[in-house]
Specification:
The chain is mainly alpha-helical. It folds into 2 domains: 2-81, Rna Polymerase Sigma Factor, Chain: A; 103-190, Arc Repressor Mutant, subunit A. The protein has 8 helices and no strands. The chain has helices at 2-12, 16-38, 41-57, 68-102, 110-129, 132-142, 148-155, 159-190. It starts with a helix and ends with a helix.
Length: 191
């Protein structure tokens, strides 16, 4: 669309009204699109806001020869897929912990107790190894149940920074625990 192309030129020049026009035109549609991926309205809105924030922050470097619409939808899709991947890592971690807690009965063997204790120590150690900012963000999200925008507000950071720190934390934990998690599951199921 010609209007979008002209609007992008204005945004690149720092025109806030042009940016607001773009935001109003696509925001709801992009939120609906994101929600199809992650089925969480608040997270969908955060993702779309992040896309627009990135556009504004990088407006000087925008190189869009085509329409903005495909760029917006592709950006939202990529962030949604990243979000889903991070959520899978954490869900797997908590599924193992939940399995262990649910199976801690009176007949929970000494062997299983030792394995669980070792795993818990490994998890605690992996969390302790995280850089301070990553660790704070991870613990606030996963132990306190705070959303990214709440963490950002409490720590005085941008939502993007919180998301970046969470991504780093999850990547480091995934790397640190991947071998041990497999061994733990095998040991518990074979016993």
């Amino acid at each position: 669309m010609q209007v979008d192309k002209k609007n992008i030129g204005n945004i690149k020049s720092g025109d806030e009204q042009a940016f607001e026009l773009l935001f109003r035109k696509y925001y709801r549609r992009l939120c609906g699109f994101a929600n199809k991926f992650i089925a969480n309205t608040a997270e969908s809105e955060e993702i779309v806001q992040e896309v627009f924030l990135n556009i504004w922050e990088k407006r000087d470097h925008l190189n869009l020869n085509n329409e903005i619409r495909p760029y917006l939808f592709k950006s939202v899709q990529n962030l949604c897929l990243n979000f889903i991947e991070h959520r899978k890592v954490i869900d797997n971690y908590y599924a193992v912990i939940e399995f262990i807690y649910k199976n801690q009965t009176e007949d929970f063997s000494a062997y299983e107790s030792v394995i669980y204790s070792e795993f818990q120590a490994k998890v605690d150690h992996a969390v302790d190894l995280l850089p301070d900012e990553c660790r704070k963000v991870f613990l606030m999200s996963r132990h306190e149940g705070l959303k990214y925008n709440e963490i950002a507000e409490k720590l005085g950071l941008s939502v993007k920074t919180v998301e970046t720190q969470m991504g780093r934390a999850l990547a480091k934990l995934k790397t640190e625990l991947k071998d041990y998690l497999t061994i733990l599951l095998i040991a518990l199921f074979l016993n």
